[in-house]
Write a structure and sequence with these properties.
Length: 272
């Protein structure tokens, strides 16, 4: 028999994650609900963890999912660590992005052939190939000087950029971090404490498993095997959470990553 101070069971946490994503998928088949399923998913990410821990406010506070608000307390140090992580990670990522699509859109598909072959045996067969084909029809090699912001960023005299930043932080990154790192990873860590350190930060099975759930969840929104690659940034978000003790580090880095990807895509594959 469990007491109110016992952590949620791992099976409960994983079951809740599965239920949230299955519910999101099913909403897409219900007339009138398909248009609001994204909002429902965000609400679930924000509020389900706090509801499950409503009788355990200290644990909710430690997980940074409550008890008074699903928004974690602001942490300036976490913001500085996120900024430093971006300074280290983003330049080589940009170089890798330019090189990768230069190869793929130039006809050297050996980098994606294994994924295409794997997807051929899945219900999503052909999705990745079609996606890359559509992108490469608009491909323009990056010359190092031309930056094209997404059209949505340039709307309303570039006020669209402010809107995009707010959406990425509060509608995309923060709810995903609250649910996957704050709640799911924390529950898993209580059952499977980290046994290793990466750059001085405790890191273990909980970080890996929660990142795997994070990646698989991305398939629900777009059934394309390439989206499983979100597993790797998920590991970095987990590391930032453990490094700083604040969900804001992973949130800000997560949002910045998405915004950077939007700019890279609009620059490399301009519309029209």
């Amino acid at each position: 028999m469990t007491s109110p101070n016992d952590p949620p069971k791992v099976s409960t946490a994983l079951g809740v994650a599965a239920a949230v994503y299955v519910g999101y998928a099913l909403f897409g088949f219900v007339p009138g609900l398909a248009d609001v399923r994204g909002l429902a998913l965000v609400a679930a990410f924000y509020f389900v963890p706090g509801y499950l821990l409503r009788n355990d406010p200290e644990r909710a506070r430690r997980y940074q999912v409550g008890p008074d608000s699903p928004i974690p307390p602001w942490d300036g140090r976490a913001a500085r660590v996120a900024l430093l992580a971006g300074a280290v990670v983003f330049p080589p990522f940009c170089a890798a992005f330019v090189w990768f699509y230069g190869q793929v859109c130039g006809g050297n598909t050996w980098l994606v052939d294994p994924l295409v072959a794997l997807e051929a045996h899945l219900p999503t067969a052909g999705a990745l190939e079609a996606f890359l084909g559509e992108l490469c029809r608009r491909y323009e090699p990056f010359d190092g000087f031309r930056i094209v912001l997404p059209e949505s960023f340039r709307a309303y005299g570039y006020l669209g950029t402010v809107y995009a930043v707010a959406v990425e932080i509060f509608v995309v990154a923060l709810p995903e971090e609250v649910f996957h790192r704050g709640f799911l990873m924390s529950v898993l860590e209580e059952r499977f404490p980290p046994r290793h350190r990466i750059l001085g930060v405790p890191f273990g099975l909980a970080a890996v498993a929660s990142s795997a759930v994070f990646a698989v969840g991305h398939l629900v929104g777009m059934a394309q095997v390439g989206r499983l690659a979100t597993f790797f940034p998920g590991l970095l978000f987990a590391w930032l959470w453990k490094k700083t003790g604040s969900l804001w580090a992973g949130t800000l880095f997560h949002a910045a990553s998405n915004l950077l990807m939007s700019v890279l895509l609009s620059t490399t594959f301009p519309a029209g």
